């Protein structure tokens, strides 16, 4: 999605040298890297947004170092961009103008878990999956489960307000963040939020900072609310002849008052891509839904899953396969996880979208995406968190020569989403990938207000520059 | 809690006349009131924060009128303060400096309820209970249930980020607000947020605006997320010999992994006050907990409530009375609702606190509150949403001569709360009542950042002036 005309201006080398000298007085030798391999590694994320190498990468180990780095960058007029595990899908951590990449990955301690208070305090570099496992070991549950949970970090989850399949029932990252230690763009450190579950003292800056995509500062400590671990989970794979049947079933399940923790859709293209990779779909399968329910009483759950199966059958489901144990559950989820790599294997290139529509519009958006793909001659695979209307529509293509067509398809997809009352990003963020599309959804007065808010927090404009908002004419 | 030295300066009468003339060109005659009775009615709320009459009260009927009112007030240099049903507990809607009270109560239409999308769109003057009933009639559920739900409005709930007993399981107002039409202090109208359940496009201004206590603008349309109505609810009253036993039981229930939708504590003073008012407690009862569980399968719920009863018994509960039908449920909740008026009948005056501590600290805070009351010779009644650590500690007293002692008790209570890792307000807001205490909890840099943020949104400083933050020396 890189637009040459909007190519950002890189920082002057002399400034980089000066900030590097200043930082080498604050950091030890191993905390500052400039070798080619490191710069190349920090030049990309998991979006398809381009390659933007930083001029140096720093690895602070405590809050004071983060603060000192921010201050030095402002003092020397050098752009600085925080990053975590670089698993982002919207280019949020790419250092567009070069300068300093500030990696939080060495701040990776779980500072405390309180069973009595149902809270955890973590550093931003903690891998999400490591926290999940640590709290589950003491009977607690951290629900947000972005697909990259085995490698992404909680600081990145906070920056992007990450979601995941379980968001349907349990909400997203911001629903679990109650307090933050936050380094503002000028290096000042503030503690916002609280350590209690409830609280309304002062403005909700936690709410504003979570999801600010690394443009308003960075978290150096995160206080999370946890919940009791559900004692029982049941998982089923429901097979449908077509994706429209599956989409209608998702709507019908929710309209009937059921609230599974996940309702993941797999369309025909995705299903064919994964079929036979560790799991054999029954003949005639044209789409599938992975449904998962959880709770504390086993009886109620069987009842819930059985009602869900009945509703799906009424909508044309041919089969509901219920996992009988953990290894079967794992097998069903492996199907979901392998979709993205399996689609990549179908065609040389793939872009992944992250749209959300009101839940009643799920069947319609799927139908229109199919039609659009056919009209443009592109393969469109749609899967994802259909239960909350958040679909990952993927466009598969042959190579750069098809990119203009793909860009046209993306544009149409986002226009259609907004027409249907939806949003252009459900959980990946705007970052670089979608900044030119934000104006489809948000009115000029709102864009202007947010630009001014960014300038309020970051008057130098050096923190993670040129993200989220459409580039103004230079 | 009024401090004469900090008494706000009222706006000059000439300015009031000028804005009144300007507003009479925008509003019809019945939308602008200046009679004594109206001014007196809009001079107070349900806090004990003093009497501050506005110079006029306006009743806009649409967004354009709200915008025009804000613009006129800024143009003429007149303070303006939004209000709803004036059931606030922290003085948030009191027009401290006089000027214009902007009542949103005539904007009271439920614009839409979508069963398929699980959303509702309402105007700010809709009474919370009216929305609850309307969505329950179509099988949906709006969980936040502030005690005043029969009279408070959703606009007020948004301004204060209102909670309630069900917050324990279901969260507070902000967890259900997904979109807002918002009139900024200068009268500009922006649409923030979205109509979908999920979404991360741009900064989370919904998060910032909910709970901003009428100081950053006002909602003229609110889009709410709903959930399916739980099919089954079970309510029990658990009786304990002492409040410490009850507090320990609350902690033990949560530590055991149960998540009831409510766990309401009633201490000895509150219990004696309500005993015999429609409900007779068994002999020896020194405290009680109202526990409520909900879900979709009846079997699981009985199991959950029975485990809860067992845990309470281990902590010394003498009895668990389970409501057998809706009329018995209603009788138990009537006990909870009558606490506040019953305490008022015990002594001529009462102030109600709204503190939150980490859940593990509930027994300790209750013990320390009792001891403090004894030391100062004041009656302290503690009840409320113990499950999430949010306690309403009430101080009962004889009259104005005891007020200095009461103020000392309040100060000690808030200092203790912060020492225990808690917050000075769980759901009532800071407003006027607690603005001098915010500095106990929040560091100077954070207070300064928030003051600057207020000035960013409201450079004239005329919208709901002198709230939330400690008054600076004049």
Automatic annotation (TrEMBL), chains A, B:
**Keyword Cell division listed:** no
Question: Keywords of this protein's UniProt record, alphabetized?
Answer: FAD, Flavoprotein, Oxidoreductase
Q: Which cofactor does it need?
A: FAD
Give all residue intervals belonging to the FAD-binding PCMH-type domain. Answer: 50-229
The record's listing under PROSITE patterns reads:
FAD_PCMH
The molecular function terms of the Gene Ontology recorded here are: FAD binding; oxidoreductase activity
PANTHER family noted in UniProt: D-LACTATE DEHYDROGENASE (PTHR42934:SF3), GLYCOLATE OXIDASE SUBUNIT GLCD (PTHR42934)
Instruction: Name the protein family.
Output: Belongs to the FAD-binding oxidoreductase/transferase type 4 family.
> What's the protein called, per UniProt?
FAD-binding protein
Q: Which organism is it from?
A: Myxococcus fulvus
> What gene is it encoded by?
glcD-1
